[in-house]
Amino acid sequence: MKQSFDAIVVGAGPAGCACAYTLAKAGLEVLVVERGRFAGAKNMWGGAFYGPTLGELIPNFWEEAPLERYIARHKFSLLSDEACLSIEFTTPRFSQPPYNGFTVLRSKFDRWLAAKVEQAGAIVATALQADDLLWDGNQVVGIKAGSDELPASVVVACDGVNSTLAQKAGLRGELLSRQVKMGVKEVIQLPRELLERRFNLNNDEGIAWEFIGSCTRGLPGGAFIYTNKASLSVGIVVRLNALVEKKIRANDLLEEFKHHPAVAGLFAEGKLVEYSAHLIPVSGINMMPTLYIDGLLVAGDAAALVLGTGLILEGANFAVASGVAAAETVARAKRERDFSVKSLSYYRELLEQSFVLKDLKSFRKAPHFLDNPRLYSSYPGLVCDLAEKLFTNDGKPRRKAWQLLREAMKERVSFWQVACDLMRGKEVI
Amino acid sequence: MNPISIEDKLAVNKYDIDRDVHIRIREDICKVCNEHYCLYACPADCYKLREGHITFAYEGCLECGSCRIVCDKGAIEWELPRPGFGICYEYG
After folding, report:
1. Confidence band (pLDDT; 50, 70, 90) for A1?
2. How many CB atoms lie within 10 A of CB A288?
3. What is the pTM for the complete model shown?
4. Mutation site, A104, A144, A179, A278, interface B, largest B CB count within 10 A
């Protein structure tokens, strides 16, 4: 591999593949380097992605991609130690093309996406790692991989949350434990018919179910259950600094969650087939590194392009959109034969125009709002308590909901705090 | 349903285990550390405290990077495994 490439893309996840696919389609010479034995070998996520971004890149992708289920139902639950209050949403619109979202297992999906990249004309080199960047003065001119030096006009770092390239290029410092969440997940196999009966699903319908409250012992984060074809993805997401400061292990939270009375029965007869973990950058635009320098662009998780608003936590569509924007920038730079920082600033322009930076900017205060411990330790227990009081028939005269609410709030939270949190929430998310 | 230990969970995962150790710890630093955040950050329980000493086993590492981030003493020399080695997710 002594030839010089137009672009070397580091990492064959959603950002890297979207970037390389777009570049190859535009006729550029592209090399993708992936450290896993195959694309997807190192990748995990909770399990769902949403929106039209991938469909814009690969029209009708759902007809050929190895997807698990389309998400027909959304469920959100508040947990106390024993009780659970849920709200569920469904509409036939989510069950029709182009669909609103899918559950996906990354190992299969990323392999498929990387194969699409190869079909488009790029080279995907697996079990190859970009150890460092090649420099010519202040300009990045390729990568070092083992003993090889691979020259390229531009490098696109899509090497994930721990991006060693962004760090080596000095675009960002060490990650901080309050900027990331730890995600741990189990994939639990269940016979397909049993799973569909248990979750009331028809055919390829799926459910995305999120939880907050006792599942993280009140720490910032939550739990999730996603239905795959013949397995469940069940996991916990919790802020890393909160875990270590409270001396709590994420896996202990996961075990507790699986035994919560509201969900324990769902895993019966299931067989654990994988246990995985990953970090999620959750501080939004506040932790975003410099996005480009001479000859280098950063996209996806490596650029911390993840949106967390409390109701949603999305990164994959941001990865795809930023990968495409990086590719469009590189294609333009090649036409103008200019890979300087000035030329690559077009990347920022594209991101500013798209939902990527628009969303991250409009929700810039969300990460701080979501630090509020009352969201996890007070309110879920409070509403479960209130619901129990409303539903319980103990043979005594009924009291009004307002009285019951005041009773449930006692020692948990004051009216003043609730008012402040509502006001802040309204402003932020 | 009984709780499953991390060891039993890791046993179902697929790894291509290398001879080379990709993460090293500086025992001299760990010895004087009071927090031992690594014990709680690592989802694979690779760090253990035995008679006041931190030990590290790299084989079950899930390559998440959390230990490096939480250790503010600089005791962890963190590298990724050699390409092609380490955890190999079949589901993800």
Report:
1. very low
2. 19
3. 0.96
4. A278
Model ipTM? Answer: 0.97
- Tokens standing for A271? 């067989």
> Tokens 């003993």 label which residue?
A147
Q: What are the chain B neighbours of A41 within 8 Å (beta carbons)?
A: 87-89
Question: pLDDT tens-digit profile of A272-331?
Answer: 999 999 999 999 999 999 999 999 999 999 999 999 987 789 999 999 999 999 999 999
* pLDDT band per the 50, 70, 90 thresholds, residue A3: confident
Q: How far apart are CA A381 and CA A413, in angstroms?
A: 11
pLDDT of residue A152: 98
Residue showing tokens 């390409």: B83
Tell me which residues of chain A, numbers 117 to 176, contact chain B at a CB-CB cutoff of 8 Å: 126-129, 146, 161-162, 164, 174-176
Structure tokens at A231: 């397995």
Beta carbons within 8 Å of A105's beta carbon, 6+ residues apart: A47, A66, A68, A187, A228, A231, A233, B91, B92
From CA A105, how far away is CA A86, in angstroms rounded? 26
CATH number of B1-10+33-92: 3.30.70
Phi, psi of A102 (to 5 degrees): -140, 150
Element at B49 (helix H, strand E): strand B47-50
Residues of B in contact with A231 (CB under 8 A): 91
* A180, A217 Cβ separation under 8 angstroms: no
pLDDT of residue B84: 94
The residue type found at A336 is E
Q: Please give the single-letter amino acid code of residue A396.
A: K
**Cβ distance of A107 and B90 shorter than 8 Å:** yes
Give the pairing type, strands A148-157 and A5-10: parallel
Pick from A404, A399, A380: nearest CA to A83: A380
Q: H or E stretch including A83?
A: none
Q: What is the DSSP string of A358-415?
A: HHHHHTTTHHHHTT-THHHHTHHHHHHHHHHHHH---SSPP--HHHHHHHHHTTT--H
The DSSP code for A287 is G
Cβ partners under 8 Å of residue A93, min gap 6: A100
CA B69 to chain A, closest CA, distance in angstroms equals 6
Q: Residue window 22-81, chain B: list those with CB within 8 Å of chain A.
A: 35, 37, 39-41, 43-45, 62-66, 68-70, 80
Mean predicted lDDT score pLDDT of chain A: 96
Q: What is the mean pLDDT of residues A110-115?
A: 98
Chain segment A382-422, per-residue pLDDT in tens: 999 999 999 999 999 989 989 999 999 998 999 999 999 99
B22 interaction partners in chain A (CB closer than 8 Å): none
The dihedral over CA atoms of A218, B60, A278, A41, expressed in degrees to the nearest 10, equals -150
